């Protein structure tokens, strides 16, 4: 199997292209410090992961900023901090402040020359539009949880994506799903019969970060530590 076998790269955005872990910590850390909470980044992120999975499963029809605000409210209860609705709403709107990874824009611009690029994201259309400005590339298709009405890892998100691409004349075998999260993306993509590229952004870190823990023995078809490494792999393949 070669990277040149595929016509479309379907991308998760947050965690893969946008550094949501840094964005989340940048938003929660000052608030936690203000209230005397001595929590590590891993503790903050792993608590977030637990609550995100819970709230998305319970409220699949809510937009992602509302999910984030609900997570924030539960954090105040868990950590016994006075509720602050203004802060909860601000956290919900923080997506636009989350930074892109340093290699995202240039890597996407390179890959655009060789593939159609598609987003399948767990956010809403307005939030993604803000992030897209940082990615500096025009995607051929954008699919959000708002479009589907459910959040990954729900299989319906991948069924929807596969059907949308079929309407564009792209068969499942020509799709390479490219993502960081095993929980949100790689596991359900494999279950949907897709070939997968794991962008293992946490390769040199401990813990599971902002994504729920996966206990299955998962074998992605490709694995790299960054999008830049994906580009290097593609360039090496072209030289052979």
Topology:
Layout: E1 8-11, H1 20-34, H2 41-58, H3 64-78, H4 85-92, H5 104-111, E2 116-121, H6 125-135, E3 141-144, H7 145-148, H8 155-167, E4 175-179, H9 182-191, E5 195-199, E6 222-224, H10 227-239
Parallel strand pairs: 1-2, 1-4, 2-3, 4-5, 5-6
Describe this structure in words.
The structure is a single chain. This protein is an alpha/beta fold. The chain has 2 domains: 157 residues, HAD superfamily/HAD-like (Rossmann fold, 3-Layer(aba) Sandwich), CATH 3.40.50; 77 residues, Orthogonal Bundle (DNA polymerase, domain 1), CATH 1.10.150. Helices cover 48% and strands 11% of the residues. It has 10 helices and 6 strands; from the N terminus they run βαααααβαβααβαββα. The protein has a 6-stranded parallel sheet, sandwiched between helices. The chain is globular, with a radius of gyration of 18 Å. The chain starts with 7 loop residues before the first strand and ends with a helix. The mean pLDDT is 95.
